[in-house]
Design brief:
single chain; 317 residues; alpha/beta; four-stranded mixed β-sheet; 33% helix; globular
Length: 317
């Protein structure tokens, strides 16, 4: 069934159920909530008032139906969603005392593998100005190939925003994955990456600043490196910016990077700056305001349980 949403952004990738596990006496108690980095990003954009569509495969099982219903309830278009006969992938989430999280995936032959080029939309609405890709779906086949080719096909007219969101346990061929990383970064308009992702993808000895400068020199208009509680780094036409992160009582960090990414894209879209030419001429004052907005969104998410991304009204004050 179609919707009346004319999306400005299309988010590609997986949707799953995050299972938060706690031990209570002799029992392991789990609470399941919708999740997956692309799913979170789509919801976050909708909550910030941006017209957005989700592109991916959702199971027809009870979990998958709930994921689809959740997208619709949030105002995300599901016009590009494939209904899969495979089960919904699960992620078991454990939280450390400092709020950092560890993920263990249960996705053997699940719906996140069930997207190929035949499932891609033939005609992309003229309203779409940005395609967001990333997360572990890029390491799955045929899903990863389909998403990469979809982004590459539309890179001439749409900004490709790339957030790798590395999950090493799901990367079977590290060399092939790094090659895909390089190809996507080669046509991306935005690379938003965490220092943790850089360490996982390129080794602990990798220098985030040096890599960001390389991506900029290769033609990426905007590179953002988040570093947890350390200052965010931004590289663009405005030069280099290092923005301190305000302290927060961290409940957990689930969805913090997705929240930052959503707010970054929402800020650009609302200002009509989500085009490659506009990204190539961002001013220092605009970039500083953009980073402050994105950091505020991530801060709110860190103060809440799970990937509970903020609404626009929460960021106005």
């Amino acid at each position: 069934m179609g919707t009346d949403i004319s999306p400005h952004l299309v988010v590609c990738g997986e949707a799953l159920v995050d299972c938060f596990a706690t031990v209570e006496r002799s029992q392991i108690v789990m609470r399941g909530v919708p999740g997956g980095s692309p799913f979170n990003l789509a919801v976050g954009l909708a909550r910030l008032g941006r017209p957005v569509a989700f592109l991916g495969a959702l199971s027809g099982d009870a979990f998958g139906r709930h994921l689809r219903d959740s997208l619709v309830a949030e105002g995300v278009s599901t016009d590009f969603v494939k209904r899969s006969d495979r089960p919904t992938p699960l992620s078991v989430v454990s939280t450390a005392t400092d709020g950092t999280v560890d993920y263990s995936f249960r996705n053997h032959e699940a719906a996140d593998y069930d997207l190929d080029e035949r499932d891609l939309p033939r005609d992309l609405p003229a309203s779409v100005s940005c395609i967001a890709v990333g997360s572990y779906a890029l390491a799955l086949e045929p899903t990863g190939t389909a998403i990469e080719r979809f982004a590459a096909e539309h890179a001439d007219r749409c900004v490709i925003s790339f957030d790798p969101n590395v999950r090493p346990g799901l990367i079977r061929d590290s060399a092939a994955w790094r090659s895909r990383f390089g190809r996507i970064a080669g046509f991306a308009g935005i690379v938003k990456v965490s220092a943790e992702d850089i360490a996982l993808a390129f080794g602990r000895e990798a220098d985030p600043r040096a890599l960001a400068r390389e991506w900029r020199a290769s033609g990426v208009p905007l590179v953002i490196v988040t570093r947890g509680a350390d200052p965010v780094l931004a590289f663009g036409a405005f030069g280099e910016i290092e923005r301190p992160v305000e302290p927060v009582a961290v409940v957990d960090t689930v969805g913090a990077g997705d929240s930052f990414h959503a707010a970054l894209l929402a800020f650009l879209d609302a200002a009509d700056r989500l085009s490659r030419s506009a990204l190539q001429s961002l001013e220092p004052t605009f970039a500083a305001a953009m980073l402050a907005y994105a950091a505020s969104a991530a801060r709110i998410t860190c103060g809440r349980r799970g990937a509970d991304l903020p609404y626009a009204k929460e960021l106005r004050g």
